[in-house]
Automatic annotation (TrEMBL):
It comes from Parasitella parasitica. This is Actin-related protein 2/3 complex subunit 2. Gene3D superfamilies: 3.30.1460.20, Nucleoside diphosphate kinase-like domain. Residues 349-444 form the Nucleoside diphosphate kinase-like domain. GO terms for molecular function: actin filament binding; structural constituent of cytoskeleton. Its main location: cytoplasm. It is found in: Cytoplasm, Cytoskeleton.
């Protein structure tokens, strides 16, 4: 499992790109972040001055817990006394005063992108300071305030200091039934992992309860529902020692809720992938389990003379076989009566009848490319004409295919418009024409 970034990636990438460009352009962006946070990045007055504003529903609660002092400490003169209209905090960045050294500039950009994190760090820093003061005075009791931050709708973070520990409580709501199941598994794993894994003995203690709030919150008027779960982290002095350890603890505990829901969604996606894979495997098993039909006729591409006209349909091989049926010649009557066609067979080495499908000859003319291909094969066009069939004529012509799955589609296709009918002649007319048009089976 991965850990989410503490900073806002869009702000970081936007500033990095802007500081690298020699020619800057005006910017006006609205960016959404976790927990309902909204950023506004703009250059309203000057291209060299960037305003980054933050709007958050719990800002006033954070200010009551010392967020204003934390922001002044971190951002100094960049923090405006009067924020942009519609937002709670605004930083003003003069690009001409940004550090020129790469490392210093990267650190500056990262600090700006941690605006939300630094605001939410205020109650934690206050609780740590209270615990240190109590420890310094060697008190065994502390009358500290329960700091509540309602950072999401129906969800909150509660921080309370004690003489030997800091208690952080998350109230989280699972509205989806599937999320409740996954969430319960995840939260129980947080509780059990510390007991099972020796390497986690120094990790903060984790407690979880569903519906029933922990002792520190029972005096509050909280929502009584099975949708609400409470996760308690108990931090000891070793977890918030001054320096990088303290900063890392604050950063990590802030993203717990996002971390939890992110991995619930990943788990659901993984389960869906597994289920789809299992269904595919079952379908393969079912397909292999189909019994073979005894004495069934096995058909191949050569079984059918032609199923659906791909480019053309060869219907008559005159010289090499007797006349197929009178319907084969109805295409050319009355221009050529039967006797005339019989005479034609005596003077031509071999002829074949070819049809070009309706969409090829939409303008009633033989396309030049097809005519050139016919001439390249030394095929002589003895006769050609445009034909428009009725459904009855098409049914009579393709009567041999009646009852097959393609019959109605074939008849409907050939009656959709006029098509070109031709008599072609050459010493090997049948073979040459078949080689020219390629396979007539729809699969091939």
């Amino acid at each position: 499992m991965i850990l989410l970034d503490y900073h806002n990636v869009i702000i970081k990438n936007t500033l990095e790109t802007r500081f690298k460009k020699e020619k800057v352009e005006p910017v006006d962006m609205t960016v959404a972040d976790f927990d309902g946070v909204t950023y506004h990045i703009s250059t309203p007055e000057s291209k060299s001055v960037i305003l980054i504003s933050l709007g958050w529903a719990c800002t006033q609660e954070l200010f009551a817990h010392g967020a204003q002092e934390v922001l002044k400490r971190e951002y100094g003169n960049m923090l405006l006394d009067t924020p942009e209209h519609g937002y709670d905090v605004t930083l003003s960045i003069d690009t001409e005063q940004v550090p020129t050294e790469v490392e210093d500039r990267d650190e500056f950009i990262r600090k700006v992108s941690l605006l939300k994190r630094n605001m939410l760090a205020a109650p934690f820093e206050r609780a740590f300071a209270e615990q240190e003061q109590c420890e310094k005075e060697e008190k065994t009791e502390i009358n500290s305030e329960l700091m509540a931050v309602h950072y999401r709708k129906e969800e909150a973070i509660y921080v309370k200091s004690n003489f030997d520990r800091i208690t952080v409580i998350f109230s989280t709501t699972f509205k989806d039934e599937t999320d409740k199941i996954f969430g319960k598994v995840f939260l129980q794993e947080f509780v059990d992992a510390r007991r099972r894994v020796p390497a986690l003995q120094n990790a903060p203690q984790v407690l979880c309860s569903i519906r029933e709030p922990p002792m520190e919150l029972r005096h509050l008027n909280l929502k009584d529902s099975d949708d609400v779960s409470y996760v308690t982290f108990v931090l000891f002095p070793s977890h918030f020692a001054r320096g990088d350890v303290r900063e890392e603890t604050i950063s990590r505990i802030q993203i717990f809720r996002d971390y939890l829901h992110y991995h619930i969604k990943c788990s659901k996606a993984y389960m869906h992938t597994r289920m789809r894979a299992r269904v595919r495997d079952f379908l393969k098993v079912l397909n292999r389990a189909k019994p073979e039909i005894q004495n069934a006729e096995k058909k191949t591409a050569r079984t059918y003379k032609a199923l659906i006209p791909v480019i053309t349909q060869i219907l008559l091989n005159c010289r090499s076989s007797p006349f197929k049926k009178p319907a084969d010649f109805c295409l050319f009557t009355p221009l050529h009566p039967m006797s005339t066609l019989k005479q034609l067979l005596k003077h031509k080495p071999q002829i074949t009848l070819a049809l070009l499908k309706p969409d090829i000859c939409a303008n009633a003319a033989l396309p030049p490319k097809i005519r050139q291909a016919i001439e390249a094969k030394n095929l002589e066009i003895v006769e050609e004409r445009n034909v428009l069939w009725t459904e009855q004529q098409a049914g009579e012509f393709y009567a041999e295919h009646q009852g097959k799955f393609f019959y109605h589609r074939l008849c409907g296709y050939m009656t959709s418009g006029p098509f070109k009918a031709m008599i072609l002649a050459s010493p090997n007319a049948i073979k040459d024409w078949r080689a020219l048009i390629g396979p007539t089976h729809p699969v091939r």
